[in-house]
Design brief:
Number of domains of chain A: 2
Structural class of chain A: mainly alpha
Oligomer: heterodimer
Strand order of the largest sheet of chain B: 1-2-15-14-13-16-11-12
Helix content of chain B: 10-25%
Number of strands of chain B: 22
Structural class of chain B: alpha/beta
Number of helices of chain B: 13
CATH topology of the largest domain in chain B: Rossmann fold
Number of strands of chain A: 1
Number of domains of chain B: 4
Shape of chain B: globular
Largest sheet of chain A: none
Largest sheet of chain B: 8 strands, mixed
Order of helices and strands of chain A: HHEHHHHHHHHHHHHH
Strand content of chain A: under 5%
Distance between the termini of chain B: 39 Å
Helix content of chain A: 55-70%
Shape of chain A: globular
CATH class of the largest domain in chain B: Alpha Beta
Radius of gyration of chain A: 23 Å
C-alpha cells in the first residue's frame, strides 16, 4: 500500500491551510484516517495506547448488524413474492429485497454523512464515525415502503436537531436512529404503521411485478394482536398460522431489520463477546419485558394481555431494540447500577405501551426514547448514592 | 444494617491469611491491568554510569515554585542548593554532583527549563549536622535544606510535601507495578540498614502510622520484616503499587487531611543522609524496553540528572530517530529524547519505538493478531489466552480523539473504592469544585488515571485533565 501512502502524502498539501482544496479538509482527513491508522504519537500522559479506537468500535457494531441487514433484504423479497403468490428461487428473492432496501441505506448514509461532513468542516473538526452506525440502523428500523424523500427528511432532522445541535457524537441525548423513526412516526404515521407498509407489493425498477393474491393482508403479527377483539391466532400475510419458530427465524412482516431473532442473536453474541455493547442493559431489558408481560398474562382481559412473554420478545422490534438501540453507550445510563434500572424500565415500558396503547401496537421505540430522556436522572441518583456512601465510609475511619 | 454491610465488605477485602509468620494485612486487587510490554531488565550486577553532564528540571517537582539559587559558572558541591521555593525559601533542590554550573536554560516567558552542571568528578560533599536534629521540626528543616523533600509527595494534590505540615500518616510504597518497573529486591540490596533508618526517621514525623506497602513477590527481609511500620501486602495487577490506591484501601483521605507518600529509594536516601550527614543520590536505575538490546536490559547505578547520550550509545536496538526514550515508565514517564537527562525521581529508562514511520492500512478492520489491546475485538486477545506473549508497543495514539463515548471502560482498570472515574473527570472538565470534592478528587493523582488513559478508545488526555484539576483546586483552596 506504499503507492497509496505516497499519493496521499503528495496531495496532502492541497488540503492544508492555504491549499487549493482547503474547503474539503475534513473530508480528506476522514478518508486518510479511514485508509491508514493515523501515526500521530502521544504528546502528554501515557506513552503507549491500546490499539482499540472508536473507529473499530463502530465497525464491530456494523459487522454485528450485517446479518440483520442481509436477512432483512431476503425477507423483503420473500414477503413480496408471498403476497404475489409466487415462490421464486433464492437469488431472485434476495435480489428483489436488495433492490428495495439498498436505496434506503444509500439515502440514509448520503444525507446523514453529508450533514456530518459539512458540520465537521464548518467547525474545523475531524469527521467522527458515529453516524456510520446510525446510518445503518435507520434503514433497519423503518418499513420497506417508506418513501425515500421521507427517509431523507427524517434523517436530516435527526442528525441536525438530535445530534449536531447538542454537540455531535458523544453528546446526543436521544438515539439518532430512533429519533429518525419517531419523526416518521409522528409526521407521516401512515407510512410507519398499518397494513400496507411492511410488505412491498409494487415492483422495483420493473422487477418482481405481479398481481397480489386475494388472501393477502399486510398486517404484522403485532398489528393483528392490536386490532383483535378476542383471542387471536397469529398468521402470516396470506393466512397461514405462524409458529414461534417462524417468528424466531423471521420470515414475517415487520421493519426491515427487526424480524429475524436469529440474526439479532448473532449480532448480540458479536457485541457481547467483543465487549462493545453492554450485556447488563440487554439482559435487564429482557427481564423487564418478560416480567411485565407475565403480570399482564395474569390479568389477561384483552387479547394483547394474553400474549405469552416469550412471544412478546419474538415479535416486533423488542429484541432489536434491546440489542442494538438500548445499548447505545451515549444515550443509555453510564453507571453500572443505572444500567440495570435503565434496561428494566425500558423493557417494562415497551410491553406496557404495546398492551395498553390502543392506537399503535409497538412500544419499543417510545420506551427507549423515553428512557433516553431519563438516563441522566438515573445516573444522577446512582452517583449521589455513591457520594453518600463514600462520605460515610471516610467519616467512619 | 449499612454498617454491617460495610463490615462484611471490608472483611472480604482485607483479610489476614494465617500462613505468614509475620502478621500483616493482605489486600487483593482485582481490577487493573499489567500491560504486556516486552523488555524487562535482567537481574545482574549493576554497572556504574557517570557522565560529564547533569541537569535538574524544575518540572519534576509539582507544587514547588522554583527560583534559581545559582548562576552560570558557579561551582557547586554534592548537596549545594540549585533551586529554592519562592514561598518557602528553606526548601531546596540540591545538586547530585560536584562541579560547575554550565547553563541556566529558560524557555518562553523566561520559564526555567533546566540547570545543567558539569561534573568535575571530585565528589565534594556538603556536610549537614544531622546528629543535632532530634525534634520533628529540626528533622524536617534539615531534610528540606538537603533537598530530600523532593522525594516526598503529599495527598491531596499530588505535590511535593510541605515541611511545615504534620501528616496524618505516611505511606511508603515499596514496589511499582507499572510496566517494566524495577524489582524492589534489587533496589533495596545493600541499602537495607539505611532503609530501616529512614523508616525510623519518618516515623518521628507523624503522629499516625507509617504504612509500608509490599507485594507477594518481594523476598527481602528488610522489607518483609521492617520495624516501626505497619506492613500491608498488595497483590494483583497494576495499579497495586500506586500510593493512591493503597491509601484508598488502607485509610482514605478526607477533606482537610494530609498524608505523605514516598518510595523505597527515597526512604533509603533519608536513612543514609541522617546516618552520614551528607547527600548521596546514587541509585540503581533499570534500562528497559523493547528497543534496548536484549543484553543491555539491566540495572545500572547512577545519579539523578545524568545525561543519557553516552550511557545509551550502542545499547539501543535501532536508530534513535525512530525511538522514544522515556525517563520513568511508559505510563507516567517523561519523553526526554536521545540528548535528555534522567529525571530526578525516576529509577528506570524505557525505550520504545516511536511508530511515526508506520503506516497501517485499514487498521480499524484488521484482525489484529499482533496488536496489544484489552478489547476482545482483537484476535491477539484470544491467542494470548493460550500463549504468553509480550509486545513491543509504539507511541502512536492509534486513533482519533473523541468525546466520551463508551461507558464503564475505565472502571475495569480503576480499582479505587467508591470513586467513579468517569464522573470525577466530568466534574474536573466542568470545573465543578463541589462535585470534584464529593467524587473524591482529594484521593487521586494523575498516575491513578494512567491505565484509564491507556485503554480509553476516545483517547482522552486524562492525566493532563487530572493534573489541571488538582492545580485549579489547590489555587482555589490556598
Amino acid at each position: 500500500m506504499n503507492f497509496l501512502r505516497k499519493y496521499i502524502d503528495k496531495i496532502k498539501p492541497n488540503f492544508e491551510q492555504g491549499g487549493r482544496w482547503h474547503t474539503f479538509r475534513s473530508v480528506f482527513e476522514g478518508l486518510e484516517t479511514f485508509l491508514f491508522v493515523p501515526n500521530t504519537t502521544s504528546k502528554t500522559g501515557v506513552h503507549i495506547h491500546d490499539a482499540n479506537d472508536s473507529k473499530r468500535t463502530m465497525t464491530i457494531v456494523i459487522i454485528a448488524l450485517l446479518p440483520c441487514l442481509l436477512f432483512g433484504m431476503y425477507n423483503a423479497g420473500y414477503q413480496h413474492y408471498q403476497a404475489l403468490g409466487q415462490y421464486p428461487d433464492f437469488q431472485t428473492t434476495f435480489l428483489f429485497g436488495f433492490l428495495s432496501v439498498m436505496p434506503i441505506v444509500i439515502v440514509s448514509y448520503l444525507v446523514g454523512l453529508g450533514i456530518e461532513f459539512t458540520v465537521a468542516q464548518l467547525k474545523g473538526e475531524e469527521i467522527q464515525e458515529g453516524f456510520l452506525v446510525s446510518g445503518l440502523l435507520i434503514p433497519l428500523v423503518v418499513s420497506i415502503d417508506t418513501p425515500l424523500w421521507m427517509i431523507a427528511v427524517a434523517t436530516a432532522f435527526a442528525v441536525i436537531f438530535a445530534k449536531e445541535a447538542f454537540g455531535g457524537t458523544g453528546f446526543n441525548v436521544w438515539n439518532v436512529a430512533l429519533v429518525t423513526r419517531a419523526f416518521l412516526f409522528f409526521a407521516y404515521p401512515s407510512k410507519i404503521s398499518g397494513e400496507s407498509v411492511f410488505v412491498r407489493t409494487d415492483s422495483v425498477l420493473g422487477f418482481g411485478a405481479g398481481k397480489i393474491t386475494d388472501a393477502f393482508s399486510g398486517a404484522t403479527p403485532l398489528g393483528q394482536i392490536g386490532t383483535a377483539t378476542q383471542s387471536v391466532q397469529i398468521t402470516d400475510t396470506i393466512g397461514n398460522t405462524l409458529s414461534q419458530w417462524d417468528m424466531f427465524l423471521g420470515l414475517i412482516p415487520g421493519s426491515i431489520g427487526e424480524t429475524s431473532k436469529l440474526c439479532i442473536l448473532i449480532g448480540a453474541i458479536i457485541l457481547i463477546t467483543t465487549g462493545i455493547a453492554n450485556w447488563r442493559i440487554m439482559l435487564s431489558v429482557f427481564v423487564g419485558g418478560v416480567v411485565t408481560a407475565q403480570i399482564f398474562n395474569v390479568i389477561g382481559t384483552t387479547p394483547s394481555m394474553q400474549i405469552p412473554p416469550f412471544e412478546h420478545i419474538l415479535l416486533g422490534g423488542f429484541a432489536f431494540g434491546a440489542v442494538f438501540m438500548a445499548t447505545d453507550p451515549v444515550t443509555s445510563c453510564r453507571t453500572r447500577n443505572g444500567k440495570y434500572i435503565f434496561g428494566f424500565l425500558t423493557g417494562t415500558l415497551a410491553i406496557l405501551i404495546r398492551i395498553l396503547n390502543p392506537g399503535y401496537p409497538e412500544g419499543m421505540m417510545l420506551a427507549i426514547l423515553l428512557m433516553n430522556s431519563f438516563a441522566p436522572l438515573i445516573d444522577h441518583v446512582v452517583v449521589e448514592g455513591n457520594v453518600k456512601r463514600r462520605l460515610k465510609r471516610i467519616n467512619k475511619r | 444494617m449499612a454498617n454491617f454491610q460495610l463490615l462484611v465488605v471490608s472483611l472480604c477485602r482485607i483479610s489476614k491469611p494465617p500462613t505468614h509468620t509475620y502478621k500483616y494485612m493482605t489486600v487483593k486487587i482485582k481490577k487493573g491491568l499489567d500491560v504486556k510490554l516486552s523488555g524487562s531488565p535482567r537481574q545482574t550486577e549493576t554497572e556504574n554510569i557517570s557522565s560529564q553532564n547533569y541537569a535538574v528540571h524544575p518540572d519534576d517537582f509539582p507544587g514547588f515554585t522554583a527560583k534559581t539559587a545559582v548562576k552560570e559558572k558557579d561551582t557547586v558541591k554534592i548537596g549545594s542548593p540549585l533551586l529554592y521555593d519562592k514561598y518557602r525559601p528553606y526548601m531546596k533542590i540540591v545538586s547530585p554532583v560536584s562541579g560547575t554550573i554550565t547553563a541556566v536554560n529558560r524557555g518562553e516567558k523566561r520559564r526555567l527549563i533546566n540547570i545543567t552542571i558539569h561534573n568535575d568528578g571530585k565528589n565534594d560533599q556538603i556536610k549537614f549536622n544531622t546528629a543535632n536534629a532530634k525534634t520533628p521540626e529540626k528533622i524536617k528543616e534539615i531534610l528540606a535544606q538537603a533537598g530530600l523533600f523532593a522525594f516526598i509527595k503529599q495527598r491531596p494534590y499530588d505535590i511535593i510535601a510541605n515541611p511545615t505540615d504534620v501528616p496524618r500518616d505516611i505511606f511508603v510504597s515499596a514496589f511499582s507495578s507499572a510496566p517494566l518497573a524495577p524489582n524492589p529486591d534489587f533496589i533495596i540490596k545493600k541499602q537495607e540498614e539505611e532503609f530501616q533508618c529512614g523508616l525510623n526517621t519518618l516515623a518521628s514525623l507523624t503522629p499516625g502510622k507509617i504504612y509500608l506497602a509490599i507485594n507477594n513477590k518481594i523476598k527481602n527481609t528488610a522489607l518483609r520484616k521492617a520495624k516501626n511500620v505497619e506492613i500491608v501486602e498488595f497483590n494483583g495487577p497494576h495499579p497495586a503499587g500506586n500510593a493512591g490506591l493503597q491509601i484508598n484501601r488502607i485509610k482514605p483521605i478526607n477533606k482537610g487531611e494530609t498524608v505523605w507518600t514516598t518510595d523505597l529509594q527515597a526512604v533509603a536516601y533519608i536513612g543514609q543522609f541522617m546516618k552520614n550527614g551528607a547527600i548521596d543520590l546514587n541509585r540503581p536505575v533499570a534500562l528497559t524496553g523493547p528497543e534496548v538490546k536484549p543484553n543491555e536490559r539491566r540495572y545500572f547505578k547512577t545519579l539523578p540528572g545524568v545525561a543519557i547520550n553516552e550511557w545509551l550509545k550502542n545499547r539501543l536496538a535501532s536508530d534513535e530517530k525512530y525511538l522514544r526514550i522515556i525517563s520513568g515508565n511508559v505510563l507516567t514517564g517523561t519523553n526526554i529524547g536521545a540528548q535528555g537527562y534522567l529525571r530526578y525521581g525516576d529509577n528506570c529508562i524505557t525505550v520504545i519505538p516511536e511508530g511515526n514511520n508506520k503506516n497501517e492500512f485499514l487498521g480499524w478492520i484488521s484482525p489484529g493478531i499482533n496488536k496489544y489491546s484489552v478489547s476482545t475485538s482483537f484476535i491477539s486477545r484470544i491467542i494470548d489466552i493460550f500463549r504468553r506473549r509480550e509486545y513491543s508497543i509504539d507511541a502512536r495514539i492509534k486513533g482519533g480523539k473523541r468525546a466520551m463515548i463508551m461507558s464503564e471502560e475505565w472502571d475495569k482498570v480503576f480499582p479505587m473504592d467508591d470513586i467513579l472515574p468517569e464522573y470525577l473527570i466530568r466534574a474536573i472538565i466542568t470545573s465543578n469544585i463541589e462535585k470534584m470534592e464529593n467524587l473524591g478528587i482529594y484521593e487521586v493523582a494523575p498516575e491513578d488515571f494512567a491505565l484509564c488513559e491507556f485503554v480509553d478508545t476516545s483517547k482522552m488526555e486524562l492525566q493532563k485533565i487530572v493534573r489541571e484539576g488538582l492545580d485549579k483546586l489547590y489555587k482555589e483552596m490556598n
